């Protein structure tokens, strides 16, 4: 009966391996399985993982069933690092018919040749090598002025006594970084800016749309909004590449990609660079990976600060002291002096990280923590559960927002804090993301002085958007400046 209702349940099992398969979470809906997106307003969009893990007694490795496939959830830094650093596991590339893609490139929404989905290890390493220079701390430093400008512009909407939705402010900030810093455009006209923002949103939301999963040869598929958005974005990126080739490099991420080269030994022309096609696909994937993640983390941070005015006061005081010693300028050196600011960001990333990494596929059977991970199975490195079950943090208080824990070596989370993943596919944009969040929150603390969450009433907890892929407060986080 089970085999009929959950047909893929025992798809992967290695009879030659003595170790048992990981424990199975309750199977959920027949055929579809566990609804990993059915979160709870109280406990957030990733509630499923906490609930299922609790029901099984919190093993580090267990199985759930999703859309016809068994998926193995792995938590705990030791296990997660083993998976992410082992050659026995590889990324599950973006599916799609390679032949059809070659014929009709425009019918593919997200290329499997971008750094995030590239399956071939050598090609992935080559892409990382050429993209890397765009994300070094030095490159991020060069872009700091563009980040400050974007934050100042977006925070200028905050006015005393007026209610402002911080979700919109944070999202616009991340989108501004996308055109100013990642692509390096010089958009002046409000209409053009709005068009760019709309296109990135439509393109990113394609990840969760049916259109992304339709076969490449479906007629009129390219008329769907995410495909139209892609066409516009590709056009903008091509224009910018041409401009860079004529006028030379600037401080943008795209520029670093265009001028990044790799010296290759024993090849006649011993210098290679990314092809225009690689540059375009990778620029597009940076828009997907770099906007929603940063915007949601910032929105959650503002929510936490609104519920903890004492913490906000400490954050503000640190900025006031820095201004009195070093002036108003925001530079990378100044940001590094803001240790409390750093703790606020880390604490937010601890409680609301992205749920986990992209799925990995076991290329051979592996025994981990005494459990069988059979060849062919999908593995989900569960960052959320790794943070939740970190023995350094008491389990019943793991959601307590307490940045002070980061200031003491005895209470500070250590190896079980993995917000940017690990190994050869660790988040390439981590330095940029951290710089964006430091700039935004320091300017927010300088500007807001005192604020309250609008409409929160007596509620002393955050309600979460139950179906959001990245944890996000449900009400858009409206705030009012008090002073
Ligand atoms: C708070 C913000 C962010 C968080 C929490 C975050 C988190 C992550 C995590 C956990 C991974 C690892 C995925 C895996 O192993 O499968 C990852 C990969 C990646 N991230 Fe981020 N990210 C953030 C911001 C950014 C930004 C700003 C960019 C670029 C503009 C970016 C670009 C990427 C790319 C390209 C990858 C794939 C790297 C590879 O496969 O080699 N991310 N991110």
Automatic annotation (TrEMBL):
<feature type="binding site" description="axial binding residue">
    <location>
        <position position="427"/>
    </location>
    <ligand>
        <name>heme</name>
    </ligand>
</feature>
<dbReference type="GO" id="GO:0005506">
    <property type="term" value="F:iron ion binding"/>
</dbReference>
<dbReference type="InterPro" id="IPR017972">
    <property type="entry name" value="Cyt_P450_CS"/>
</dbReference>
<dbReference type="GO" id="GO:0004497">
    <property type="term" value="F:monooxygenase activity"/>
</dbReference>
<dbReference type="GO" id="GO:0016705">
    <property type="term" value="F:oxidoreductase activity, acting on paired donors, with incorporation or reduction of molecular oxygen"/>
</dbReference>
<keyword id="KW-0349">Heme</keyword>
<dbReference type="GO" id="GO:0020037">
    <property type="term" value="F:heme binding"/>
</dbReference>
<dbReference type="InterPro" id="IPR001128">
    <property type="entry name" value="Cyt_P450"/>
</dbReference>
<keyword id="KW-0408">Iron</keyword>
<keyword id="KW-0560">Oxidoreductase</keyword>
<protein>
    <recommendedName>
        <fullName>Cytochrome P450</fullName>
    </recommendedName>
</protein>
<dbReference type="InterPro" id="IPR002401">
    <property type="entry name" value="Cyt_P450_E_grp-I"/>
</dbReference>
<dbReference type="InterPro" id="IPR036396">
    <property type="entry name" value="Cyt_P450_sf"/>
</dbReference>
<keyword id="KW-0479">Metal-binding</keyword>
<keyword id="KW-0503">Monooxygenase</keyword>
<comment type="similarity">
    <text>Belongs to the cytochrome P450 family.</text>
</comment>
<dbReference type="Pfam" id="PF00067">
    <property type="entry name" value="p450"/>
</dbReference>
<dbReference type="GO" id="GO:0016125">
    <property type="term" value="P:sterol metabolic process"/>
</dbReference>
